[in-house]
Amino acid sequence: MATIYLYRHGETEENKQHILQGCMPGTLTEEGKAQIAASTEELKTLGFDRILCSDLQRCKDTAIITNKVLELPVTYTSLLRERDGGSITGMSVDGVTKVRIPEDAETVGAMKTRAQQF
User: Fold this and answer.
1) Are 15 and 35 a contacting pair, CB within 8 Å?
2) Quick one: pLDDT at residue 95?
3) Which of 30, 31, 41, 82 is catalytic?
4) Buried-state track 72-100, b at ≥16 Cβ within 10 A, e below 16
5) Which residue among 9, 11, 14, 106 is the active-site one?
6) Is 1 helix (H, G, I), strand (E, B) or coil?
7) Catalytic annotation on 106?
8) Residues 24, 90: contact at Cβ < 8 Å?
């Protein structure tokens, strides 16, 4: 039986600006790069076989930093992307307490299908 660990990308410029990223590429901040580098040594002790990674740039950049230590094969896939927020992607979430999910956003059912395909 395989064990899968979920590892989030480092802080992005969009995180700092409180932007709903969805399927935007994202740009790691220097702090985000440092977060990843600091946590990678701990990951080394877990004995991974490979890295399975979203094809979004912020995730690819995180995998590259991580893999400087782990030195593993990496597979990039769109199946691991964050939910596509449709027309609210790129919006600031400052001051927002509730957002109506637009009709052009990815549905929960579509996310479940992606997870099953993965």
Assistant:
1) no
2) 72
3) 82
4) eeeeeeeebbbbbbeebbeeeeeeeeeee
5) 9
6) coil
7) no
8) yes
Number of helices (H), then strands (E), belonging to the chain: the values are: 4, 2
Q: Given the structure tokens 């220097």, which residue do they identify?
A: 30
Per-residue pLDDT band for 98 (boundaries 50, 70, 90) equals: confident
Q: What is the 3-state secondary structure (H, E, C) of 58-103?
A: HHHHHHHHHHHHHCCCEEEEHHHCCCCCHHHCCCECCCCCCCCCCC
| Angle at which helices 57-70 and 30-44 cross, to 10° | 40
Examine the residue annotation and report whether 9 is marked as an active-site residue of this protein.
yes
Give 9-68 pLDDT, tens digit per residue: 999 999 999 999 999 999 999 999 999 999 998 898 898 999 999 999 999 999 999 999
